[in-house]
Amino acid sequence: MFPLTYSTVLLSLVTASSTSMIWLYLSGKIRNSALTTTTTTEKEDKINKKDRVIGTNTQFVKYVVSVQYWNYHLCGAAIITDKWIISSAQCYHYRRGKVNGYRAIGGLHFLGETRSINQYVNISRVVIHPRFYYSEKCRQIASDIALLELVSPFLLDKFVDKIQLPLIRQSFTGRATVSGWGGYRSGAVPLGRVNITLLSYEECVEQNKLNNLTAKITMHKSMICGYPVENNHTVCRSDVGSPLVQGDTLIGIASFAQVCVITLGGKYISLYTKVSRYINFINKYVKDLY
């Protein structure tokens, strides 16, 4: 989320395949939250009047999760049951079959801050869609969706809760909101929210052709496309995995965005995995959705 500045961390912390990781945003600038952790006292930890749970101007978005790799924020995710979260496949496919080092943090507003409302749970399994595909050379990505099973369930409360899924092949128009931590500054980084104008498939293909500064990527009808409503906001590459929500429904998972910069008058599109196209995949593994 904009406005943010980056700090650089060696890519070898995540994978030796740094060239490929650049395109997959895991090469995006990540920050060691352990280096900037602040701890609040119990008295300070009581939520004040400015802190609200899920609403128009909320500071806490209770379905949003930070998935971390050895204390580094890796990708965003959304809670769909107390034992399952959903995210982007590109975040995890370089470590297929490995879960050591992964953990999910619920009830988090500031990266790098510890509060009594935060819940920390390790990941026991990562299920990547079998048709997930990307090609750095051809600028193609497909079925960018992954399910993460937790070692133990989240305790669902007013700070940590699930988001409902759409109907099979349900479509959405109008506006939606994406929540994520985007690029990083020093200190505790607050969760950002950006309103997105949704485009039709045809509009998105045309926008992708016209905008020379938009990195071209092959479009699919299993994607949702949009651009920020406000000119002074944008979705960053490192928002990958973050949930796109309309009302009380998870409609997309952030999959592709531009570098986290803003040009006046620029309409930089961002792409999201269309969740309604993958309900059968989700139902195959998540048995307690309803």
Automatic annotation (TrEMBL):
It holds the Pfam family Trypsin. It comes from the Eukaryota. One of its GO terms (biological process) is proteolysis. PROSITE patterns: TRYPSIN_DOM. Belongs to the peptidase S1 family. CLIP subfamily. The chain crosses the membrane at residues 6-26. This is Peptidase S1 domain-containing protein. Residues 53-287 form the Peptidase S1 domain. One of its GO terms (molecular function) is serine-type endopeptidase activity. Keywords: Disulfide bond, Membrane, Transmembrane, Transmembrane helix.
